């Protein structure tokens, strides 16, 4: 396909062509965007585009079309650029109009700043990072797809090698590239991505890429947005399609400016820190000029990314829905094993994992379901393994050990750094539907300092209101979020939670670690994939309650209160309604049925009685 | 070397060859350039050196500054009307770096062929004026005339600005200001662009579009006028016009490329200021050979170094003399969008602002300001040797005028006067809403719709949001009367108190939310700390000060430590905070309403106890709350049913359905803001009668049973509530219906919180003294009984404690607890009737 070559390898050619064709009107800009949108709509076309997530930067051709799956971490100030400018060829003295869109640096020739034809335009820059806490399996699957697809954006003379060898070579290649990417040319070019674990060269640079979670890797990117930037929000997940720009001139500029700033402080409106944050070397933080961006509802690669009217997607969805119930029962068995035979806890975990804030009524977030699993064995690394299991099921997750050291030292709330003029990220800057795993068994005695108290408050706010107050020094700003918080603890958690389940193990295997491993290994990867799809699909279903059921629920509530008004409060009803909702969704039912309502009630009863028993036990303890 | 401040014109005019300055001007230390004072006219702007020795003017040093004054005038192209001699006599002009280099702006005779082919301007103007400034349609003569006319004639009888406080509103406003200048000697004339617009829309348009040309023309006009009127007055330098409030007021987000080189006003918060940067305005060159000196003005950041000495024709003999060159002060300021202007889910934008000369250090980080200035964009060159250019412009604003928006808060002069702009439609919409008879109910039901019922509590909070009218009695010595309404919610856990607080906190622009458990006294008030950068002691304000003119929501009020709570005493009545710490003694305004929530001590509300006993708060504090509500779980079936319905519908109704049912939060916000800003109701005659009656009634209820059921504080509360209710109706008069509602609400709250559980009567003394009158009466009775008992025993110098207790219990028909007995003993001790030592009671 020669055309593919064109629009992927040389998208700027397309842009310039369109500009040259009708340079008078503004029509061409729309046409360009349309053109690329059309191209990308073609079946499978999106997978032809190399992804910055998988392919190391030095394998990508500058000024080619790339895609990047990312989260908006920070929004910089809008910048004005030369949308159209005129260059003067000094030899012939002829003037040429050029287009500055989708470019960082002007093309050859002396720019005539006084030209009447020049047009100043505006664009917005987003600082994007890979989706924080993305699970390994997500990377593997999307990376696998990328490998399968014949990529056309690289020099074609690549030779086959075994994967192992490739991996080795990759790390080597990377080391070289960090130093200089000139000798990359001489290296063999391969579509291989680096295995994310062993690329120390990347973090060796002293540049802080500002990832929300510590230990994250992957490229950060400056995405230049040309239209509709008001529609994007901080922490949105996006799949960006755009033109990669790694012009060495950009990095050169950074160096130059630093030197010149010594001479002329008036020139340096920006501090050194600010320059570093806003114009980092392009070899580390490439620029992408966005042509098209797809907001992502989820980052599960097993599902079509957008719930579109696409027939294929529909067929896929109906297929999933039909076997939802069977997958659920398998999943329940699996999780029951994990919870050492406690099926109630497993049920609640399923409900928790498909919960999502679906609406906000003034300040109240609806649909959140923070789960506190108490009674977890403390001595063994049970909680760590539990986290690993959850990690295998959800597309993105993060574990916070609530140890004293962690609480006092971790930066959770993002903070605005005014010297560098950027938002310094914190661990609570997470994309929608990330699972946050709080391990309270690590709690120890000691004193929380000011940071610790702030962190605990932030966690509390996150759980109660699903919002994080970012620290802007002079004021705080509230950012709504949608994070599933799971707290594991020995006793009742010190943090608030919507629902507490006390774990009651039915079996006590002699070697807990071994036991969990075997349970885990028993799951085939196809099985795991089914679970993964299950969670994402169940979460996105619509839901309603019929009038009839509403009546029944009301009756029920009144009835319950009649016997003992203390037993059921408004809060309890709230919780029961959420449980009922999630229970229905977990069976793939989009409206509440009487059976599910009764089942939800029973589950709640069981859970509450269990907690009360636990209280008694604790109360009797000396 | 291109300085972005001055070379900002996008369509640059003349193209001077970019000659880099030979030396770095910044190795110089900034020198004091303070112009001399009155006695030493007529040469005040001479460069620095003379300042050290103002008394000895006849030193040789001075020859050059004097000479210097004549040099630029002779050198400058006299045909330019921008430069022509103003009748200032001795007063020197001062460069305006904020406007860039205007002096070079050429004029175009439109009758001849315009050199640039600027056809549009030409066609517009051919009929009228001949000369316009290149690239604009500004004719200097006309423009000047118009502005002078404006100054002489503009009257704004309805002016409400505080700057015009002591001016006669029926006289030409700006002439009075000129008069002020002649008296005070501060040569700055602030001009409200809004005034210009109402006076002459065309002039206003020119000012907005071509500030760089028009403002110097204004300067000239005002100086002519001024020195005509006050020929003998002496000023530092010529008057500079500082326009402000360009109606293009925008938030930062809406700035776009079309605003470049235009006059704009934006609001924001200062987040960073740089150190002072000296910027060269005029370079001084001296020939090495013949010592001939010349001056070159900096043009758009560049200095054209003279290659040849004009005197001796030696080439490349001119050297820059730093300490004879002229510098101006410059400061970089970073401005960030105010949090209110931002769309949700995005981060705030920042803009760079340059302040020049006396605007330097006018603002500090943290200040909220409105900045009027010229928006500039300059291309960024990668490298002078490279042709490649980064295709991005650097943008900044050259500040002409700062206006702090929060200044008034510090001085406490006036009611919150935030320039919240309401569009016409919005205002008419709000008024329409206000005209509806059920607006009060509508608004209260729009408040926190997700929280079920509690209508009266919502109404109370609604009134709190509106607040009373601020009254000033400082003349009669009582100072300000509190206009803010304080509310305490107490009740069972899980009755969505926190949610209500959270809602209010989100609704009001200046709200603070703290939790009693997590806040300390300093966190609420203010603390002194050392700034890590400047090493200076700075006062960091706490939640109460930050919520000045707003609402401070305090959750878990009961968990607050006593010392923390004690700071609230002053705030809740006097509305100020006194601080004496680390040598800083001051009184800050804290005109904040307090919305607090408290849980009962025994986790569940005990209906058998009084409010005080239930929440264990000092009554001195409780009596400062206007309304105390109990949020209890009413346990009846109908309520349960409605509650269940409400909750279920919460879970399945779509977003749109809800929108229809309730007023949207934004409307509510605007409604409150509008009412708070524009409506100041006063009591009418009937209403005051009604209030008096209500108060007398309240006193009467109690007096029948020997109790006092109302104190003046309650009357004040009633007035505040009535005023707030009038505000809800957008009424300027407090009428009887307002009083009625205030009474009702007050009664409701009292009924809930001040009911004596023993008698079932409303008894305000529960709140004011912490004990109900019946309880006090009973205490007295026990004491009397004990006294009688002791007297009946005859003359016994000492008694056993336990025995006495048993005797008393045996004698009395009502059960007497040990506490009561102890209390009775204490009462008798106070009467000096007996003393208690250990286990024996001695008579005195």
Automatic annotation (TrEMBL), chain A:
Task: Name the InterPro entries on file.
Answer: MCM_complex-bd (IPR019140)
Gene Ontology MF terms in the entry: chromatin binding
GO BP terms in the entry: DNA-templated DNA replication
Q: Where is this region: Disordered?
A: 186-205
Which Pfam family is an annotated match for this chain, by its short name?
Answer: MCM_bind
Q: Which UniProt keywords apply?
A: Nucleus
- Where are stretches of biased composition, namely Polar residues? 193-205
Q: For this UniProt entry, what is the primary localization, expressed as one broad class?
A: nucleus
CC annotations in GO: nucleus
Q: Which domain of life is it from?
A: Eukaryota
Location in or out of the cell: Nucleus
Q: Would you identify the family this protein belongs to, as annotated? A: Belongs to the MCMBP family.
The name of this protein is Mini-chromosome maintenance complex-binding protein
GN (gene name): MCMBP
From TrEMBL, chain B:
- In which residue ranges is the amino acid composition biased (Polar residues)? 46-63
Q: What's the gene? A: MCM4
Q: Which SUPFAM superfamilies match?
A: Nucleic acid-binding proteins, P-loop containing nucleoside triphosphate hydrolases
> What Pfam families does UniProt report for this protein, alphabetically?
MCM, MCM_lid, MCM_N, MCM_OB, WHD_MCM4
- Assigned protein family: Belongs to the MCM family.
Question: What InterPro entries does UniProt report for this protein, alphabetically?
Answer: AAA+_ATPase (IPR003593), MCM (IPR031327), MCM_4 (IPR008047), MCM_CS (IPR018525), MCM_dom (IPR001208), MCM_lid (IPR041562), MCM_N (IPR027925), MCM_OB (IPR033762)
Q: Which GO terms describe its cellular component?
A: MCM complex; nucleus
Disordered: where is this region?
1-124
Organism listed in the record: Pygocentrus nattereri (Red-bellied piranha)
Instruction: Report whether DNA-binding shows up as a keyword of the record.
Output: yes
> What coarse category fits the chief subcellular location reported for this protein?
nucleus
User: Single Gene Ontology BP term?
Assistant: DNA strand elongation involved in DNA replication
Summary of the function given for this chain in its UniProt record: Acts as a component of the MCM2-7 complex (MCM complex) which is the replicative helicase essential for 'once per cell cycle' DNA replication initiation and elongation in eukaryotic cells. Core component of CDC45-MCM-GINS (CMG) helicase, the molecular machine that unwinds template DNA during replication, and around which the replisome is built. Acts as component of the MCM2-7 complex (MCM complex) which is the replicative helicase essential for 'once per cell cycle' DNA replication initiation and elongation in eukaryotic cells. The active ATPase sites in the MCM2-7 ring are formed through the interaction surfaces of two neighboring subunits such that a critical structure of a conserved arginine finger motif is provided in trans relative to the ATP-binding site of the Walker A box of the adjacent subunit. The six ATPase active sites, however, are likely to contribute differentially to the complex helicase activity.
Catalytic reaction annotation: ATP + H2O = ADP + phosphate + H(+)
Q: Name one GO molecular function term.
A: single-stranded DNA binding
Q: Where is the MCM C-terminal AAA(+) ATPase domain?
A: 439-647
Where is it located?
Nucleus
Q: Broadest EC class?
A: hydrolase
Q: How does it assemble?
A: Component of the MCM2-7 complex.
**Keywords on this record?**
ATP-binding, Cell cycle, DNA replication, DNA-binding, Helicase, Hydrolase, Nucleotide-binding, Nucleus
Q: Indicate what this protein is called per its UniProt record.
A: DNA replication licensing factor MCM4
Species lineage? Eukaryota, Metazoa, Chordata, Craniata, Vertebrata
Annotated EC: 3.6.4.12
């Amino acid at each position: 396909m020669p055309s593919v070559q064109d629009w992927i390898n040389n998208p700027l050619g397309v842009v310039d062509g369109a500009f040259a064709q009708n340079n008078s009107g503004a029509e061409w800009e729309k046409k360009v965007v349309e053109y690329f949108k059309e191209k990308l709509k073609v079946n499978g076309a999106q997978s032809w585009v190399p992804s910055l997530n998988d392919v190391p930067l030095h394998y990508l051709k500058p000024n080619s079309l790339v895609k990047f799956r990312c989260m908006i971490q920070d929004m910089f100030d809008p910048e004005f650029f030369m949308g159209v400018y005129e260059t003067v060829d000094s030899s012939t003295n002829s003037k040429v109009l050029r287009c500055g869109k989708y470019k960082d640096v002007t093309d050859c020739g002396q720019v005539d700043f006084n030209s009447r034809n020049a047009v100043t335009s505006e664009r917005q820059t987003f600082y994007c990072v890979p989706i924080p806490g993305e699970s390994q399996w997500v990377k593997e699957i999307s990376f696998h797809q990328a490998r399968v697809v014949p990529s056309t954006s690289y020099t074609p003379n690549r030779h086959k090698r075994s994967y192992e060898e490739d991996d080795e070579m990759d790390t080597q290649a990377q080391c070289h590239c960090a130093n200089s990417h000139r000798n990359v040319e001489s290296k063999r070019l391969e579509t291989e991505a680096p295995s994310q674990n062993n690329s120390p060269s990347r973090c060796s640079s002293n540049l802080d890429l500002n990832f929300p979670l510590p230990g994250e890797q992957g490229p950060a990117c400056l995405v230049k947005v040309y239209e509709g930037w008001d529609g994007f929000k901080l922490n949105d997940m996006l799949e960006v399609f755009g033109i990669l720009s790694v012009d060495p001139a950009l990095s050169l500029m950074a160096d130059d400016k630093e030197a010149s700033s010594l001479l002329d402080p008036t020139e340096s409106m920006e501090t050194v820190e600010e320059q570093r944050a806003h114009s980092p070397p392009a070899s580390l933080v490439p620029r992408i000029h966005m042509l098209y961006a797809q907001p992502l509802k989820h980052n599960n690669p097993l599902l079509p990314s957008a719930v579109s009217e696409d027939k294929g997607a529909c067929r896929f969805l109906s297929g999933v829905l039909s076997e939802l119930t069977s997958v659920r029962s398998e999943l329940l068995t699996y999780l029951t094993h994990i919870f050492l035979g406690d099926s109630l806890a497993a049920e609640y975990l399923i409900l928790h994992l498909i919960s999502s804030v679906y609406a906000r009524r003034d300040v109240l977030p609806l649909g959140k379901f923070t789960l506190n699993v108490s009674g977890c064995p403390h001595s063994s690394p049970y909680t760590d393994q539990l986290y690993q299991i959850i990690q295998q099921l959800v597309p993105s997750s993060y574990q916070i050990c609530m140890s004293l050291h962690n609480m006092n030292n971790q930066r959770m709330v993002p903070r605005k750094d005014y010297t560098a003029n950027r938002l310094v990220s914190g661990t609570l800057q997470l994309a929608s539907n990330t699972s946050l795993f709080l391990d309270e068994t690590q709690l120890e005695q000691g004193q929380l300092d000011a940071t610790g108290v702030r962190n605990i408050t932030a966690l509390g706010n996150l759980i109660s209101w699903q919002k994080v107050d970012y620290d802007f020094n002079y004021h705080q700003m509230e950012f709504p979020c949608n994070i599933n918080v799971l707290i594991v603890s020995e006793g009742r958690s010190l943090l608030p939670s919507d629902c507490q389940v006390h774990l009651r193990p039915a079996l006590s295997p002699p070697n807990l670690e071994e036991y969990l491993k075997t349970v885990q290994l028993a799951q085939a990867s196809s099985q795991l994939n089914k679970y993964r799809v299950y969670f994402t699909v169940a979460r996105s279903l619509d839901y309603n309650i019929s009038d009839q059921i509403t009546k029944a629920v009301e009756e029920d509530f009144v009835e319950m209160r009649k016997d003992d008004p203390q037993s059921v409060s408004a809060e309890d009803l709230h919780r029961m309604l959420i449980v009922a909702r999630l229970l229905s969704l977990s069976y793939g039912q989009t409206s509440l049925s009487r059976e599910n309502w009764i089942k939800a009630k029973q589950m709640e009863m069981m859970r509450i009685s269990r907690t009360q028993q636990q209280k008694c036990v604790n109360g009797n303890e000396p | 070397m291109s300085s972005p401040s001055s070379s900002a014109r996008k369509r640059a005019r003349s193209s001077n060859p970019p000659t880099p300055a030979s030396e770095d001007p910044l190795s110089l230390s900034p020198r004091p350039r303070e112009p001399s004072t009155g006695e030493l006219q007529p040469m005040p702007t001479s460069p620095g050196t003379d300042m050290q020795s103002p008394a000895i003017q006849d030193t040789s040093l001075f020859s050059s500054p004097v000479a210097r004054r004549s040099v630029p005038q002779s050198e400058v192209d006299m045909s330019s009307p921008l430069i022509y001699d103003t009748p200032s006599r001795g007063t020197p002009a001062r460069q305006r770096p904020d406007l860039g280099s205007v002096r070079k702006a050429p004029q175009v005779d439109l009758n001849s062929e315009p050199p640039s082919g600027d056809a549009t301007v030409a066609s517009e103007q051919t009929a009228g004026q001949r000369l316009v400034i290149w690239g604009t349609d500004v004719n200097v003569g006309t423009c000047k005339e118009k502005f002078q006319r404006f100054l002489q004639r503009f009257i704004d009888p309805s002016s409400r600005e505080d700057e015009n406080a002591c001016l006669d509103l029926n006289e030409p406003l700006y002439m009075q200001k000129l008069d002020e200048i002649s008296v005070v000697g501060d040569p700055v004339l602030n001009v409200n662009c809004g005034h210009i617009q109402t006076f002459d829309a065309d002039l206003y348009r020119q000012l907005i579009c071509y500030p760089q040309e028009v403002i110097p023309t204004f300067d000239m006009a005002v100086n002519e006028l001024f020195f005509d009127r006050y020929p003998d007055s002496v000023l530092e330098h010529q008057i500079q016009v500082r326009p402000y409030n360009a109606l293009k007021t925008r938030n930062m987000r809406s700035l776009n490329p079309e605003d470049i080189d235009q006059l704009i006003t934006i609001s924001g918060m200062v987040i960073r200021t740089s150190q002072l940067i000296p910027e060269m305005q005029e370079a001084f060159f001296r020939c090495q050979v013949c010592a001939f000196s010349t001056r070159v003005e900096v043009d758009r950041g560049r200095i054209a170094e003279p290659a040849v000495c004009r005197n001796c024709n030696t080439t490349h003999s001119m050297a820059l003399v730093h300490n004879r060159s002229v510098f101006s002060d410059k400061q970089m300021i970073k401005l960030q969008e105010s949090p209110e202007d931002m769309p949700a889910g995005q981060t705030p934008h920042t803009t760079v602002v340059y302040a020049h000369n006396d605007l330097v250090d006018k603002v500090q980080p943290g200040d909220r300001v409105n900045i009027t200035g010229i928006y500039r964009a300059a291309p960024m060159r990668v490298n002078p040797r490279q042709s490649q250019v980064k295709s991005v412009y650097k943008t900044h604003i050259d500040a002409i005028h700062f206006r702090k928006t929060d200044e008034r808060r510090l001085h406490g002069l006036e009611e919150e006067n935030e320039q919240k702009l309401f569009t016409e439609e919005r205002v008419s919409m709000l008024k329409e809403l206000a005209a509806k008879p059920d607006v009060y109910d509508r608004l209260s039901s729009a408040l926190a719709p997700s929280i079920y019922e509690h209508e009266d509590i919502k109404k109370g909070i609604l009134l709190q949001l509106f607040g009373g009218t601020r009254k000033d009695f400082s003349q009669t010595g009582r100072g300000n009367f509190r206009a803010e309404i304080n509310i305490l919610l107490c009740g069972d856990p899980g009755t969505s108190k926190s949610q209500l607080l959270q809602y209010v906190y989100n609704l009001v622009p200046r709200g603070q939310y703290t939790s009693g458990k997590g806040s300390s006294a300093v966190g609420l008030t203010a603390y002194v700390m050392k700034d890590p950068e400047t090493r200076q002691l700075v006062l960091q304000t706490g939640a109460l000060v930050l919520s000045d003119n707003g609402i401070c929501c305090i959750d878990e009020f009961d968990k607050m430590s006593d010392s923390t709570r004690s700071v609230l005493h002053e705030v809740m009545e006097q509305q100020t905070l006194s601080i004496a710490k680390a040598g800083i003694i001051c009184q800050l305004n804290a005109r904040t309403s307090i919305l607090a929530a408290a849980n009962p001590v025994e986790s569940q509300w005990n209906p058998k106890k009084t409010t005080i006993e239930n929440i264990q708060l000092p009554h001195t504090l409780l009596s400062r709350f206007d309304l105390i509500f109990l949020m209890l779980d009413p346990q009846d079936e109908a309520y349960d049913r409605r509650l269940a319905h409400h909750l279920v519908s919460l879970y399945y109704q779509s977003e749109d359905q809800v929108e229809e049912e309730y007023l949207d939060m934004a409307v509510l916000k605007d409604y409150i803001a509008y009412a708070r800003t524009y409506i100041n109701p006063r009591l009418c005659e009937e209403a005051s009668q009604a209030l008096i009656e209500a108060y007398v009634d309240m006193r009467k209820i109690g007096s029948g049973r020997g109790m006092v059921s109302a104190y003046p504080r309650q009357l004040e509360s009633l007035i505040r509530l009535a005023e707030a209710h009038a505000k809800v109706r957008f009424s300027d008069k407090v009428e009887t219906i307002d009083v009625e509602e205030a009474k009702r609400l007050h009664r409701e709250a009292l009924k809930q919180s001040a009911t004596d559980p023993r008698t079932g009567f409303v008894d305000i003394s529960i709140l004011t003294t912490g004990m109900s009158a019946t309880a006090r009466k009973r205490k007295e009775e026990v004491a009397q009984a004990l006294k009688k008992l002791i007297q009946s025993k005859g003359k016994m110098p000492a008694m056993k404690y336990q025995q006495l207790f048993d005797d008393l219990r045996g004698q009395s028909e009502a059960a007497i607890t040990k506490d009561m007995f102890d209390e009775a003993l204490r009462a008798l001790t106070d009467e000096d009737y007996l003393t208690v030592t250990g286990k024996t009671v001695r008579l005195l």
